[in-house]
Amino acid sequence: MSTPTLTRSEQVAAGTRIAGTPTDDRVRLRRLGPGRRVPGGILLGPVLLLAGWVVGSATGLLDERTLSAPWTVLETARELWADGRLQDGLVTSATRAALGLGLGVAVGLVLAVVAGLFRLGEAVIDGPVQVKRSIPSLALIPLLILWFGIGEEMKVCTIALGVLVPIYIHTHHGLRGIDSRYAELAETIGLGRLAFLRQVVVPGALPGFLLGLRFAVTSALLALVVVEQVNATSGIGYMITLASSYGQTDVIVVGLVVYAVLGLAADGAVRLIGRKALTWRRTLES
Amino acid sequence: MRPAVEVEALHRSFNRTGGVLHGLDLRIGAGEFVALIGRSGSGKSTLLRALAGLDRGVDGHGRVRVPAKVSMVFQDSRLLPWKRVLDNVVLGLDGRDARERGRRALAEVGLAGREKAWPHQLSGGEAQRAALARSLVRDPELLLADEPFGALDALTRLNMHTLLRELCERHRPAVLLVTHDVDEAIVLADRVIVLDDGVVQSDVRVELGSRRDPADAGFAALRRRLLGALGVDVDEDGLVHDPDPDDLAHDRPDRSRGTDRKTDRTTGRTTGREGA
Lengths: 286, 276
Ligand SMILES: Nc1ncnc2c1ncn2[C@@H]1O[C@H](COP(=O)(O)OP(=O)(O)O)[C@@H](O)[C@H]1O
Ligand SMILES: [Mg+2]
What we know:
The complex is a heterodimer.
Chain A: H1 8-13, H2 44-58, H3 70-82, H4 85-117, H5 119-134, H6 141-148, H7 152-176, H8 180-188, H9 193-230, H10 236-246, H11 249-277
Chain B: E1 5-13, E2 21-28, E3 33-37, H1 44-52, E4 59-65, E5 70-73, H2 85-89, H3 98-108, H4 124-136, E6 142-146, H5 154-171, E7 174-178, H6 182-188, E8 191-196, E9 199-205, H7 217-229, E10 233-234, E11 240-241
Parallel strand pairs in B: 3-7, 3-8, 5-6, 6-7
Antiparallel strand pairs in B: 1-2, 1-4, 8-9, 10-11
The structure holds adenosine-5'-diphosphate (ADP) and magnesium ion.
């Protein structure tokens, strides 16, 4: 016991190289979890689809009457843009979707907050929303036409009804999931009701709300497409319906692409808001 | 001088389960550090919550007088995960100098430079320091702490003891600290009280001066006395007989070394149990 012996780890710490022991080259990736974010990864799938379409059309595998070639579609889009039909349709449709989304989010949010903060509110509100949830909003269109006519009110209401449900469900869930220990903390430090709402309730329910918003955006676009097909004299849907009766696949595809761009843009916006608003969360997403 | 905390004949019970506190009396002087021990389920948290005013809806009666400014530290740090550390510390404070005071409180607990960190980036000990800063920045006259170091490792806990003693000497709040660690109680407190059967069963002043070494004979004697009060029998060799499974002293028979044997099991016990 006269010579001090170092353990293996001490030797490594002292910088001693042991024969056969490489320096630290452990793989430092997180092995569970999806791994690192692929840069621009969200575009990969769409680009592949687009490539398939180009190749199919160029080789004649895709018939022009089944699906117009990308360049035909581009040309048609340019023409539609030139006579202003595309912009008009886009503005009309986007306005409808935005109005419906805004109205649905506002109503869904108010219902969720009332149901989340007051037991009586929950008793009154939760049942009807669950019932509404089991009736697709699109099934309500005939009734809404009787009530509001075939104008914009009917379309906006249909969209709002579809949006309201996911917003309510997820926000309510988020509110209920706030740890009651935070309420206790708020009491011991004497936080007022308003401050409690602002500092605890809103940020606590935000993840739920944002998830609901993503579903809501999808619902809004789905409802938009349907109401525009059912009865419209303007908008992208009207343009598509018209083209369908003339057999213009290129115009139809332009319409679909516009819908897709609307949907992607909206979803991207919500994701961006989410990532900015939830920096505190250490989840698998980041 | 009027005591900071006065509790008289405090009764508390949860939906007819027989009651947790049965006419408890307690006084804590201004600036006095009192440690509260008692077996698990004896009502320590119930008492603290009564003092913090967190027990609305719990059955009971009695008189409780506490100072205007009461702060509480929980076993978990209870930092809001969506607020940075400094924002957590100054939560609910207003006034232009609030953030500056928060910064100073963080520096006092050794967290200068971590103002912008998110709570999940802190270690358990650091989070608990931040929770202490959140309490101190409010200048409490009474600091309530419910097993604040219970979830920390032994080394971190020792550092926290030193910190808490320093902070309390500087700010001089009255303190009621719940702990399941008898040594912790002796190291920190001016007085140790043992809760059993819903009343203060023993009330022991710690007269060991400011340097408290668990190896001292006086320390060991006091430890044995408190363990006795908790119903843990310690013999001359310091071995524990028949420990209660979920009792407090289960993990430290080796620390109870010594010869002096004294039990203190009957002091202050009252048997009146009304209103189950
Ligand atoms: N919210 C509650 N509802 C019903 N019983 C409770 C509640 N809180 C505590 N109790 C009971 O009161 C007794 C004392 O609990 P507590 O004060 O937490 O004990 P301690 O903190 O000393 O371990 C226990 O028997 C526990 O089961
Ligand atoms: Mg407890």
